[in-house]
Amino acid sequence: MGTTSTFFGGSGGGGGQKFQMFTSSGTFTPPDGSAEVFVICIGGGGGGGEGYYAGNLGSNGSDGGTSSFGSLVSATGGGQGERNNGSANPGGGTGYNDGQDGFTGHGSHNSTGGMAGVGGMGFMGIGSGGHGGMGNTNGGYGANRSSGSGGGSGNVATYSGTVTSNQTVTVGSGGNKGNSNGSTPGSGSDGAVLVYYS
Questions:
Q1: What sign does the CA torsion over 178, 179, 182, 185 have?
Q2: Who's near 155: CB < 8 A, 6+ residues apart?
Q3: Model pTM above 0.85
Q4: pLDDT tens for residues 118-132?
């Protein structure tokens, strides 16, 4: 169910460590009913918050979803990026790598304003947070150019041990971006579950 697999070492059913990467939810079935496993769970990234756009406060992003390997290990998603309320720098979402704070604009009315907050970089590029939305000038100064913050990347958790039964694998979805004005933040990216086994 939405998995890809690659095998390291051995050939044609020989020895070596095997690897399965779940990019969507599914089931891990241990060969011959038992396997030694090392599991890396990566939660979904948080969605970016909106900038203060055309006088509209916009909305926060949403948290990323939790990834899990049965009941043995789970990793929560990254935190939401916050909207900019036009007067303060919103905080970036927390996670394995935190999202960057948004910026409050200032200066000339014809400037493009401060840079939007960058989303947290995911573990091995997986579960990254969405970027914040840009504020616009709308003919105004300062607050009208305030940007949203980035979402945090998905958290990471590991498990090592023996499994003797099928394990339900859940892959956390990326958080939704704020979506009520035109400041164009980014959604978080989905997580993954990596299973090394022998």
A1: positive
A2: 42, 43, 75, 76, 77, 78, 95, 96
A3: yes
A4: 999 999 999 999 999
